[in-house]
Amino acid sequence: xxxxxxxxxxxxxxxxxxxxxxxxxxxLHGNGAVWASGISFLIGTLTLLGVVLAxxxxxxxxxxxxxxxxxxxxxxxxxxxxxxxxxFLAPRIGAATMVALLVAGQLIMSVILxxxxxxxxxxxxxxxxxxxxxxxxxxxVVLIRMN
Length: 147
Fold this sequence. Notes:
The protein is an all-alpha fold. The chain is about 80% helix and about 0% strand. It starts with a helix and ends with a helix. Pfam families: DMT_YdcZ.
């Protein structure tokens, strides 16, 4: 089962540059990255609604949702920023540079989150291997950016 989850993460990661390119194309035809991102979120919302209906998931009760900390509600903002930024940057810096920087930012934040054990992540200390991995990725960003 672990290999399935690892493969799922890999395939989802492959969708990042594709999504940015698709949204960027929509932005060219629809008054910019913000509108394209909104349309993308609308389609995503409808898709998730279809999944919820098909899987017959229970609707969360307001009392349950009130128990969530305030920051648990910020995921939509972060997603909107991510999607709009990708749609805006894709034609300006290219897929490889954009994704290299996105992944570098994701990895650095991931190491911090793991170290702190925050937001439901299991705690994993920062160690030499993780620091070297981040440094290698940052070197990769520089190499990718070089023409």
